[in-house]
Amino acid sequence: MEQQIEVREGVDRETIETVQNMGSYKYGWETEIEMDYAPKGLSEDIVRLISAKNDEPEWMLDWRLKAYRRWITMTPPTWALLDIPKIDFQDIYYYARPKSMETRPTSLDEVDPKLLATYEKLGIPLKEQALLAGVTAPEGERQVAVDAVFDSVSVGTTFREKLAEAGVIFCSISEAIREHPELVKKYLGSVVPQSDNFYATLNSAVFSDGSFVYIPPGVKCPMELSTYFRINAENTGQFERTLIIADKGAYVSYLEGCTAPKRDTAQLHAAVVEIVIEEDSEVKYSTVQNWFPGDEDGKGGIYNFVTKRADCRGDRAKVMWTQVETGSAITWKYPSCLLRGNDSQGEFYSIAIANNMQQADTGTKMVHLGKNTRSRIVSKGISAGRAQNTYRGLVSIHPKATDSRNYTQCDSLLIGDKCGAHTVPYIEVKNNSSRVEHEATTSKVDDDQLFYCRTRGMDEEEAVALVVNGFCREVLQALPMEFAMEAQSLVAISLEGSVG
Amino acid sequence: MLEIKNMHVKLEEEDKAILKGVDLTIGSGEVHAIMGPNGSGKSTLSYVLSGRDGYEVTEGSAVLDGHDLLDMEPEERAAAGLFLAFQYPVEIPGVGNMTFLRTALNAQRKARGQEELSAGDFLKVVRAKAKALKIDADMLKRPVNVGFSGGEKKRNEILQMAILEPRMCILDETDSGLDVDAMRLVSDGVNALRDANRSFLVITHYQRLLDHIKPDVVHIMADGRILESGGPELALVVEKNGYADLLKKHGIAEVA
Ligand SMILES: Nc1ncnc2c1ncn2[C@@H]1O[C@H](COP(=O)(O)OP(=O)(O)O)[C@@H](O)[C@H]1O
Ligand SMILES: [Mg+2]
């Protein structure tokens, strides 16, 4: 216990140092590398081309085409509290691959050094050692396997052999389609159906890469798994597709990180993440989302339109979503839990920060279908600058989900007086034995708190970082340690310039 | 050490004068006490010296060891050695007391061009000082002042002071709301810090604190001015007769 606290103490110091030493968006540089693009725009031919580039079997192509044909009949959702500029879907590249990835590397040693250097610079060295996000763990400590996705392709995945020994499959989704078609066929689209929503359908047609995880029955994954997404190419959309399956009695903790260069035109990231959780198994999915947020006047940035859902299929299945959303110009994202199995549990911990001109509409859906199901939502929204930040959440308890419980706590913090915070909870309880609790607060960063910190020697930005990190503490503590450190400094960095 | 000259202060938002010409000089190693009825401007003086927003200094100056305090940010004043133990310490939810202390100490060290303390060294310093103030490990882990009793908050202020080792300490009614035992802990804490290089300005309502922390000079403040200054005996006079006679003598209507 003492040990744990020591580390967290250190985390805060790191935050402060980071604030002091850093300009704003740290990952805004670009890798100069020769790329192959599919022609601009979207058509059946482009869908066929993407499928062909990945050497996909016929059934996969058919699946994509079906999604594409549906997508052209659909319109984007408009219910979120977001002002989304019109997107010209014919003015986007749907596939961008480094030329050096044309012949697939068979091991990390064969990967283009430029690509390896890119991840090294991002703090994600693609080496098989205990390293992530610039945090050095002593030899022999916890290891993290990484799948690195660069624009439309997975560059490499570490620790594959070691994971294979435990029976765990961890590879890119394109590889899984080729190597494990029976699993992909069985589960792809089974949590987020093709027709789910405009962006999910688009993703189903054009997804290029992402990660695939299968944990066999009774296996506790021997290390944390992670995927790091990097958008590099200009005018290119990224359509990540991730599929995680925890078979009966399995356990895995999965981390996701993402960054993109600074550009003054906006870029689209439309991802789908599906998680299947069978009886007695547990999945923890943590995200630190740090896509380029656009400049102070709202120029550029990533449109992050994401569908993430976990399906607790079996009894006593458990899922925990933790997200730290600091980046993106616009965030539209609701990681959700379908609690089908009896006694299954869903948790959602979220920090969403919107500064300058950023817009975020994010939250979760907890759908209670099984008996005696439990869900817990802790959302911390921070708005600064001229940003708008909305928590939108659905808690739905179905007639058969007797004796179920939800607890929701939704706190908003405002910095300055030109930003907005909104809370939109939807609650449906269709039986008498279940109970739902909802607490919401909105507050401003307190001048007395800042003054108190400053009389003790901290400057204004350190003081804000400290107070905001305190506000987010419950969620930060839900993160794996490596991510907690990164997240704390991100909180500080993304609020730079929000005071004074 | 600290030299305040003819300080006039009004509220920024409205035309209300609060300090009406305060002169105060505190030499190195001296302990001064300010007593006075509620609303006389004692807290305002401590806030203005620390750099809190909302006040406008219309006249006068405040110099600490050659630094013109009024030209500095609150954190610069802290780094220059000024410390205020708050009358009402502020709660900071979610921020561990230790984290707060270390962040503060290292910020000051950094501002002064000193090496930051390592986690281990810091822990040693805190443990020793916390023990003297009967602050246990639990209180060090809990979020800053959240759920602390009145006495715990005040002891925590003294702990911060002990760790930051300021040159000039201002204590704003640190004794109010303390029981006899807490009062002793706090005054022992303060006395342990007394030093030829460190000065204190002790703001208090009651004479009893001054039994424990013996002042060199006592000032009586009312209506934004220092009415009289004298030795410790002045505090005893006030204790015995109240402020009424003094106020009358200086032509000030008694406030409720
Ligand atoms: N921020 C403020 N807004 C309004 N009135 C204030 C403010 N600060 C101080 N005052 C007023 O100034 C006077 C002095 O207050 P204060 O300095 O707190 O006195 P003391 O600490 O001696 O009791 C009081 O009349 C108080 O109401
Ligand atoms: Mg006062």
TrEMBL record, chain B:
Gene3D superfamilies: P-loop containing nucleotide triphosphate hydrolases. Pfam families: ABC_tran. InterPro entries: AAA+_ATPase (IPR003593), ABC_transporter-like_ATP-bd (IPR003439), ABC_transporter-like_CS (IPR017871), FeS-cluster_ATPase_SufC (IPR010230), P-loop_NTPase (IPR027417). Residues 2-248 form the ABC transporter domain. One of its GO terms (molecular function) is ATP binding. Keywords: ATP-binding, Nucleotide-binding. The keyword tRNA processing does not apply. It comes from the Bacteria. Transmembrane segments: none annotated. Belongs to the ABC transporter superfamily. Ycf16 family. PANTHER family: ABC TRANSPORTER I FAMILY MEMBER 6, CHLOROPLASTIC. NCBIfam families: sufC (TIGR01978). This is Fe-S cluster assembly ATPase SufC. It comes from Paenirhodobacter populi. The lineage of its organism: Bacteria, Pseudomonadati, Pseudomonadota, Alphaproteobacteria, Rhodobacterales.
